[in-house]
Every structure is written in C-alpha cells, then in structure tokens.
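One such shown below:
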Amino acid sequence: MKKETHIKVAYIHSISLISPIMYIKSNDLFSQSRPESLYDSTPRPIVIADSLLTPDNMGAMIRLADNIGAAEMIFLGTEPANSIGRVRKCAASSKDNIKWYFTEETDLRKLVPANKKIIAIETATNATNIYETEIPSDVAFIVGNESRGIREEILQQCDMVVYIPIPGPTRSLNVSHAASVALFEWYRQKKK
C-alpha cells in the first residue's frame, strides 16, 4: 500500500510600511538634470564603426550615437542595400535625430577634424585600460568589425587605443556595448 505524504504550508501575512516609489519618465528626469549641459563647454564626439556586418549592430550604434549626443555616426564600408530597412528599424527614432552615413573613405582625417583625437576601442598591444586613461574632451571613438575588429590600416591612424577590462570568461563585447562603455566613460570623466 502506497503511503501518502502531505505537506502543510503556512502563509505568513505581514504588512509593511514602505513609502511608494514614484516612477518618473526619463524625459522629465533629464529635463531636470540637463545631462546635455556638458556640450555647453565640450565638443560633441563623433562615433565611427569600421566595416560592421550586422544591421542590428548598425542600428544600435545609431541609437547610441544619438543617446550620447554625438555630432554624427560614420560607418566605414558599404551601405547594406538589402537590409537598410533593418538598420532603420533598430535605430528607431534615432535615425531621424542624428546625421549618419556610410562611406568608402579610409583616410580618417578626411572624415574627422584635425583637432579631434581619434580613439580606437580595441584589444591591441598598445592599448591602455580605459578606466586608467584620461580621455581628451574633443574626440572621435571608433569600433571595429564584429569578428575582425578594426582594420590595421585604420588602427594605425588612431591617436589612442583603449581597451575595456572584462572580468568574465567571454573576453569580447558586442560593438555597440563596447562603444557604450567608452562613450559613457568619456561622458563621466568630462562631467566631473
């Protein structure tokens, strides 16, 4: 004969006196804190991506460039004719807020004003830890292809190379994630 086991569960009800947390829309929060005031005294950065392959990454880069308030988003390479709709969809409303374009130009100084320091986000032998590097105010950041990184002939034109230390077992970041870390570290340093 099978023995049945019954488990009794006791529920304890308690009343907690916690103040409600008011949710505030981001536009309301940012209108109060004015994060864009940085650009009253600091030039807007330029964001560059070298030879990206994935339309979702391209759209994410456009959105990120818009989020940080960049002057423009430049894609080195050809426009993905068959998937430009996907790029626009991933960029959402940012596609209309920021200048962005594709170019075959490989001379970065024809794209970036001479006064801007070009900073590569790459794991190169001469790279410095981004958190231990003083990032200049007037900058252009560049990230590379999803699998090969920044082309050597492009990397050689950069004024600085920084890397993002990654403590986990996967030692690479998505290009838009890496660009986010670098751009917002730059922003943090400049807002001090």
